[in-house]
Amino acid sequence: MSPAPSPEPAIFISAGEASGDRHGAAVARAIRAGLPGARLFGIGGRQMEAAGVARLAGLEALSVMGGAEVLRRLPSLFGLERRIRRLFAAEGIGLFLPIDYPGLNLRLARAARRQGRRVLYFIAPQVWAWRRGRARRLARDCDRVLTVLPFEADLLEEYGVDVEFVGHPLLDAREFARRPPPAAGERVIGLFPGSRAQEVRFMLPVFADAARRLARLHAGLEVRVARPPHLPETLYEGSGFRTASPEEVLGQATAALTKSGTITLELALAGIPMVVGYRTTRLEWAVGRRLVRVPSIVLVNLVTGARIVPELLQDRLTPGRMASALEPLLEEASPERRAMLRGFTALRDRLGEPGCAARVAARAIELLA
């Protein structure tokens, strides 16, 4: 017979990517500050673990991208899902707190709701871009949905979702590890090819080739590659450049070549001009073009409603185009760099106020009560 669950409140936090791990850790710390006796379980990365979350699995178990890779990993993913459902009952989980990562988290939200548990979804799935049917699932299976982009709440309300815009977690104070001040004229290109192994395989060769072209043209130009801690160093060996943590590269970069996603907001808030590139398999690209409903895949452009950041997608993603688009952004006084930085100021004004993690924790504690 299994032991009876502890009377102390239990919360399960589910994050499937590096950005979710960081945000989940901030929320976990805020929950402990407001509810010291809470027992925290979850799936995520090292930052959540350091914040006191007892992990059932790490990010390496969840780092999948694209249909073919998902199919190969289905048995292990379904096995993990069954373990989580059993833990819901064994530990008496009172609140399920999923963070983005809808493929798994929407199924777990349904399971939690059927078991009579509260569900607080943080960082809603991007139904504004594609698969709007997920909005109905959010309305059915979630007590409340917390959005981090200002335009999401109105759309979700149309589907009957109890929704609240809580501001973006990136606005919370964050210190980047910085090297000593660079020598006069020294510049650094940061490469951000992604947090999933398949993303890195698709994007890094193109990003690295573009950076090499620029390094040949500009003396003293350095290149750093951002490597999330859950991805192995061997994945980056072919680039020929040193790797560092994403935080370190953000603290050093003059300009960046990056994939799409939350990283574009991080770079913008750090004042780092960028060029965005993205590539996937031809089949997945063809399917995505039919499903995606937005004019840009760059969050900076979507939030501001302007084409601030250049984006090179699929066949247009070539080293030559990336190098040409990035080169003027390396010059402090160039019109292109100054215009982009003005756009970043407009972005910050639209992302709400700092204190997102505290607001999420407060809503979690309210639901538990």
Give an overview in words.
The protein is α/β, with parallel strands linked by helices and 369 residues long. It folds into two domains: 10-171 and 354-368, 3-Layer(aba) Sandwich (Rossmann fold), CATH 3.40.50.2000; 187-350, Rossmann fold, CATH 3.40.50.2000. It has 14 helices and 13 strands. The protein has a seven-stranded parallel beta sheet with strand order 3-2-1-4-5-6-7, sandwiched between helices. α1 packs across α14 (356-368). The radius of gyration is 21 Å and the shape is globular.
Largest sheet entry: 7 strands, parallel
What is the overall number of helices?
Answer: 14
Write down how many β-strands occur, each being a DSSP E stretch of 2 or more residues: 13
Distance between the termini: 29 Å
Rg over alpha carbons? 21 Å
Weakly predicted, low-confidence segments: 175-182
General shape: globular
CATH topology of the largest domain: Rossmann fold
Spatial strand sequence of the major β-sheet? 3-2-1-4-5-6-7
What order do the SSEs take from the amino end to the carboxyl end, as H and E?
A: EHEHEHEHEHEHEEHEEHEHEHHEHHH
* Mean of all residue-level pLDDT scores: 89
Summarize the structure.
With 369 residues, the protein is an alpha/beta fold. The protein is built from 14 helices and 13 strands.
List the helices and strands and how they pair.
Blueprint: E1 10-15, H1 18-34, E2 39-43, H2 46-50, E3 54-57, H3 67-90, E4 95-99, H4 102-114, E5 118-122, H5 133-141, E6 144-147, H6 152-158, E7 163-165, E8 187-192, H7 197-217, E9 221-226, E10 242-244, H8 246-252, E11 255-258, H9 262-269, E12 274-278, H10 282-291, H11 299-304, E13 311-313, H12 319-326, H13 335-350, H14 356-368
Parallel strand pairs: 1-2, 1-4, 2-3, 4-5, 5-6, 6-7, 8-9, 8-11, 9-10, 11-12, 12-13
Helix pairs in contact: 1-14, 3-4, 4-5, 7-12
